[in-house]
Structures are given as C-alpha cells and as structure tokens.
Amino acid sequence: MNISPKAVRFDDDNLWVSLSDGRTIAAPLAWFPRLLEAAPEQRAQVELSKNGLHWDALDEDISVAGLLAGQPDLSRRDLHQSA
Question: Does domain 5-70 have CATH number 3.30.420.40?
C-alpha cells in the first residue's frame, strides 16, 4: 500500500486523516485513549510519515493500514472489552 497521510485534524469525537489518494477517513477518538485524553496542543504535535501518524510526547503511533482496516488501539485492549 502506497497511501500516506497528508493532514490530520480533530473534532470533539473524531480523528480525521486526509490521505494521499484524496480520501479523508475518520476514526473515533475513543479508539485511541492517549489522544482522547490529550490536550489540543499535544494532538497538534503529530508527525506524518509515509506509513502513518506519530505523537512522540504521547507515545502514540497509528498506521494508515490500521485506520483503513478500522483497527482501534490494541495496546489498551482492556478498554475495548464488552462489559
């Protein structure tokens, strides 16, 4: 896959990523607890790479492939289990 992120923005509930192929995709912030809990200034410190998104201060990495597959942050699996 040769699709890379071009821009990132947030609203109250979602992460929005503009891709190099012209699509814009959204994922719920609830999928990424570190981003959900982060201040807007911290969210703005995103680094774009050819494969995804990285927030150094938040220790968060999100791949374009994972976003396209609808994959939440699996490192915090306990937050995604049903009650």
Answer: no
What are the sequence ranges of the domains in the chain? 5-70
Is the separation of the CB atoms in 35 and 45 below 8 Å? no
- Residue pair 34/45 in contact (Cβ under 8 Å)? The answer is no
Backbone φ, ψ for residue 82 (5° rounding): -75, 150
Q: Which two tokens stand for residue 41?
A: 């200034």
Which stretches in the chain have pLDDT values below 70? 1, 75-83
HEC per residue, the chain: CCCCEEEEEECCCEEEEEECCCCEEEEEHHHCHHHHHCCHHHHCCCEECCCEEEECCCCEEEEHHHHHCCCCCHHHHHHHCCC
3 residue type, one letter: I
Q: Look up the pTM and report it.
A: 0.85
